[in-house]
Amino acid sequence: MRGEHRGLGEFLIELGENPGQLRRYRKDRRAALADSGLSPEHQQLLLSGDVKRIQAELQREYPDAKVFLLPGWDDVMSA
Amino acid sequence: MGSLTVVGTGIQLGAQLTPEARVAITEADEVLYVVTDALVALWMERLNPRARSLQDLYAEGVSRRRTYDAMADEIMAAVRRGRDVCAAFYGHPGVFVDPSHVAIRRARAEGYPARMLPAVSAEDCLFADLGVNPGAAGCQSYEATDFLVRRRAVDPSAALVLWQVGIVGRLDLAPEGDRSRLPVLVEYLLEFYPPEHEALLYEAAPYPACDPVIEDVRLADVASAPVGRLATMYVPPSERRRPDAAMLARLGIPETHLR
Ligand SMILES: C[S@@+](CC[C@H](N)C(=O)[O-])C[C@H]1O[C@@H](n2cnc3c(N)ncnc32)[C@H](O)[C@@H]1O
Fold this sequence. Notes:
The complex is a heterodimer.
Chain A: H1 8-17, H2 19-27, H3 29-34, H4 40-48, H5 51-61
Helix pairs in contact in A: 1-2
Chain B: E1 3-8, H1 19-26, E2 30-34, H2 38-47, E3 51-53, H3 64-80, E4 84-89, H4 99-109, E5 114-116, H5 122-130, H6 134-137, E6 139-143, H7 144-149, E7 159-163, H8 182-189, E8 198-203, E9 213-218, E10 232-235, H9 245-251
Parallel strand pairs in B: 1-4, 1-5, 2-3, 2-4, 6-7
Antiparallel strand pairs in B: 7-10, 8-9, 8-10
Helix pairs in contact in B: 3-4
Bound molecules: S-adenosylmethionine.
């Protein structure tokens, strides 16, 4: 099902690389996402702006890339 | 002959890389990088297929100092092989990073051209996202462990930025962070601030589509707060410093000119 949609990581890299596209995204997230080619689930996820959930999803997209869970946003150590 | 350019990737993927740093990465014979995020790593390797991570040099139980020496060694080995080397670190490459400075000094000492380019640091993002002007009351910036170990003096009338609070008290790698020494930090801060004084725990967004994570927390409650591994703590001034009348007179500044 994902096959016909664009990858989340690809989209984020493109957004970072293209300041014009980033500006449009910041102005109107919904419109930019509607044109993004991302799956509806990934569009919803990005609308949330929730870093931890986005990183968890990236981890699924790139199962070999361990660093998502390494130094950061998985956050918090249990008390 | 080899050369070294040290660059920062900024904190947020893509948009915070300066045009000059980008060219240093894409045109290097070899890129050695240290980043905190797999997507940034992927992007580095796209910008230059001759890029490789120095992340493996980190190991639990090994002091960060030894790891940093090993990073500088790797960088210098590539320079000595006659390569145009780019070393890329996340944020600003010279801000709260050691191996970048060590490598530059070593390269110059051995006669290689070496230069560091400035970049966007976590503190730069903090000033923007929290709406803080460090010039308004002055700003103290410390590494959290160093702050405690040296009992750094605090001026509560100026802002305070504490780096590496998510691993305070640790000198080695703590991949998941380590909150166990936060009570010591709180105890020390309470020597200077009232317990109800509010600090902000800040994590800048790593990707362009994300929001920063900002937590308000009373100083007394910091030890039980969700302190992320990459969090920076901002403590606003808790008091105002009065201008000194004698100094104003010496400088010829009328008191009415100061807010
Ligand atoms: C080894 S220092 C590297 C700093 C980096 N060179 C810079 O210019 O920001 C790591 C510390 O930077 C700060 N830091 C790094 N990424 C951050 C982020 N996304 N948000 C807030 N602070 C961050 C935290 O205080 C963290 O413990």
